[in-house]
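A reminder from the course coordinator: this example appears on the midterm review sheet, so study it carefully.

Given structure:
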């Protein structure tokens, strides 16, 4: 693995480039950029998928988004869709400067909210020759659906922005409860949310750089984000959509189906991983291995490792 740093606008972004076995800098390799879930850092879901893709012969780049993890940017804990999409474009710029990357064999993989960001980026980024998603979500649609009253949230964002402009302390809210104990105390019994808490806050994948905090005013750009709206017109690349078979409140199955149906590509595939819920697809080997096998076969058609 190589530590990679690149500029996204004026922000220094830090990533890890996962290397194939017997990596040789004198060769040219196909590469895949990974766009990861909201609140996730490069050592979590991105690393799980990147390691497995590297074993199939790909360079796999996962990175901390601007304002998060080891990457720079202020204010911290911003989740800005425009910045997230910009980071993806800048990641490709970085790969284009590496002599061991074959610039005609670069693909994209987006997971959860990162799937929506990946789709948005790929619509105008023709350097991506193939696009894959796992439990992809349009985070804007999900926020508008899941928040009790998103119109009131926008009023609250306006008030908070005014307060902060006048010198008030920045407001940061938890993405999810900080522990299963907190979730239980709050009366939360949604299995998917509990799965998220278990993975991010209480499993071996918990990471100190993942703060579980969202800058409150981020709800403004998040609620206005539309990942899939221009897919019929602009997403021309081959597309692999992978969803978990167990449906739930995140809407990953429905979002994946909508993305697949909207895509005009003649080269697209839809895979359902039976029995898997949204967060199962992050780390459980019995499900992740199925997803990676399909992704590896998909990328091999359009970014063949041996060519």
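Designed residues:
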């Amino acid at each position: 693995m190589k530590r990679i740093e690149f500029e996204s606008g004026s922000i220094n972004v830090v990533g890890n480039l996962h290397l194939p076995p017997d990596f040789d800098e004198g060769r040219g390799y196909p590469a895949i950029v990974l766009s990861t879930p909201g609140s996730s850092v490069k050592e979590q879901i991105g690393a799980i998928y990147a390691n497995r893709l590297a074993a199939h012969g790909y360079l796999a780049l996962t990175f901390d988004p601007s304002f998060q993890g080891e990457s720079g940017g202020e204010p911290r804990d911003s989740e800005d869709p425009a910045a997230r999409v910009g980071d993806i474009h800048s990641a490709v710029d970085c790969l284009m400067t590496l002599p061991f990357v074959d610039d005609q064999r670069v693909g994209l993989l987006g997971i959860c909210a990162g799937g929506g960001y990946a789709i948005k980026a790929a619509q105008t980024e023709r350097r991506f020759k193939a696009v894959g998603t796992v439990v992809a979500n349009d985070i804007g649609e999900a926020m508008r659906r899941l928040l009790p009253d998103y119109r009131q949230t926008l009023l609250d964002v306006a008030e908070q922005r005014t307060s902060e402009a006048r010198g008030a302390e920045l407001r940061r809210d938890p993405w999810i409860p900080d522990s299963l104990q907190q979730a239980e105390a709050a009366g939360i019994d949604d299995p998917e949310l509990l799965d998220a808490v278990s993975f991010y806050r209480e499993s071996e994948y918990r990471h100190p750089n993942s703060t579980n905090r969202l800058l409150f005013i981020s709800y403004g750009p998040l609620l206005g984000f539309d990942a899939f709206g221009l897919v019929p017109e602009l997403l021309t690349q081959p597309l692999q959509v992978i969803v978990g078979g167990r449906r739930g409140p995140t809407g990953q199955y429905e979002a994946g189906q909508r993305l697949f149906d909207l895509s005009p590509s003649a080269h697209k595939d839809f895979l359902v991983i039976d029995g898997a819920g949204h967060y199962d697809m992050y780390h459980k080997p019995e499900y992740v291995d199925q997803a990676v096998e399909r992704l590896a076969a998909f990328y091999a058609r359009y970014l063949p490792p041996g060519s």
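The chain has a mean pLDDT of 97. The two ends are 22 Å apart (CA to CA).
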